[in-house]
Write a structure and sequence with these properties.
Elements (H helix, E strand, L loop, with lengths): L5 H11 L82 E5 L4 E6 L4 E7 L9 E6 L4 E6 L4 E5 L5 E3 L10 E6 L7 E6 L3 E5 L6 E6 L5 E4 L5 E5 L5 E6 L6 E7 L8 E9 L2 E8 L7 E5 L5 E5 L6 E5 L8
Antiparallel strand pairs: 1-2, 1-20, 2-3, 4-5, 5-6, 6-7, 8-9, 9-10, 10-11, 12-13, 13-14, 14-15, 16-17, 17-18, 18-19
Length: 326
């Protein structure tokens, strides 16, 4: 009986170990973390996501090849020049490709054939009683000759009918020689150039306005060709010179010396033209009964008398840019 008295005491001591513990309902018991995930400490911050690596090349496409960059020393392609206006249907119609010359005493127009040396009368001019006498001439590719008279009036002459029309030219440029030259070696379009005692200028035959280009060494006559070349004859130089001029600056770009040319103080009238790659000089020296002599000058400056004492007094020679250049 005595031993049984200790049983209640032991039960009471065993219940004291649960003092302070509160029963929690089953649905509020926190879930147990998975065994392979360590428990997180409440004081630890959330782990930062790993840094993203930049894409290798956003512009790359497996289906498109990479664009090729031009080499550093490669120049950009040149712009194509604009298409040139074609020549009119009547281009070079009504004009000979030979050399026209004008006789001062007879006021007559002739054709000179360089290969044969023959001179053929075209007809007499009737450009006005009070204009003086012809002094210089040029020929355009549209069938007209422009003749300057001694009073500085310029007339337009139809080469088929020889009808004369006074132009509106009225500059104080003084006496001048003149000649047409194409704007380049690859175009049919040409410009009329004039030269007085010391200047080169362009003369617009549409408006008859004058635009001075630059200075020249001395008095000169002009001629040009379809190769875009403008040449001047300088008879007062010693020796006389044929010079190729820059059409933009009037600077001399090439010189051909004429050692066999007559003394400039003996010259009364002269004119000159280019044809087929050679030059033709028309020179009259002072003296009773003297008339024009015709000289041929090669591109290298070899000068020879082609026809002497022609019976004419040539003061102007004109050739259009329709003429051959070689």
């Amino acid at each position: 009986m005595r031993h049984l008295a200790f049983i209640p005491l032991l039960l009471a001591l065993g219940c004291q170990n649960d003092v302070g513990l509160t029963a929690v309902p089953d649905d509020e018991v926190p879930e147990r973390p998975y065994e392979d995930e360590p428990a997180q400490d409440d004081e630890e911050t959330a782990e930062e996501p790993p840094e993203e690596e930049p894409p290798e090349d956003e512009g790359e496409n497996e289906n498109e090849p990479p664009a090729e960059e031009p080499p550093e020393d490669e120049e950009p392609p040149e712009e194509e020049p604009p298409e040139e206006e074609p020549p009119p249907e009547d281009d070079c119609v009504g004009v000979s490709d030979l050399v026209y010359v004008i006789d001062r005493d007879e006021e007559a127009l002739y054709l000179f054939d360089p290969p044969t040396g023959d001179v053929t009368l075209v007809g007499e001019l009737d450009c006005g009683l009070w204009s003086g006498t012809p002094a210089s001439m040029s020929v355009s590719r549209d069938g007209y000759a422009y003749v300057r008279y001694s009073d500085q009036t310029v007339y337009s002459v139809d080469l088929e009918t020889l009808d004369c029309t006074e132009t509106s030219y009225g500059s104080s440029f003084g006496s001048f020689g003149m000649g047409f030259a194409t704007d380049s070696a690859t175009t049919w379009q040409d410009t009329l150039y004039v030269a007085n005692s010391n200047q080169l200028a362009m003369l617009d035959v549409a408006t008859w306005s004058l635009n001075t280009i630059g200075g020249l060494p001395s008095q000169s006559e002009l001629t040009g060709n379809a190769a875009g070349e403008l040449w001047a004859m300088l008879p007062l130089e010693s020796p006389a010179e044929l010079v190729r001029l820059n059409k933009t600056t009037a600077q001399v770009e090439q010189t051909v010396y004429l050692s066999g040319f007559p003394n400039p103080y003996d010259i009364d009238t002269f004119a000159f033209a280019t044809w087929g790659g050679s030059f033709y000089l028309f020179v009259r020296t002072y003296g009773m009964g003297n008339s024009t002599d015709i000289y041929e000058v090669s591109a290298t400056g070899q000068m020879s008398l082609l026809a002497g004492d022609t019976g004419m007094n040539v003061v102007g020679a004109g050739v259009s840019t329709c003429a051959p250049t070689n």
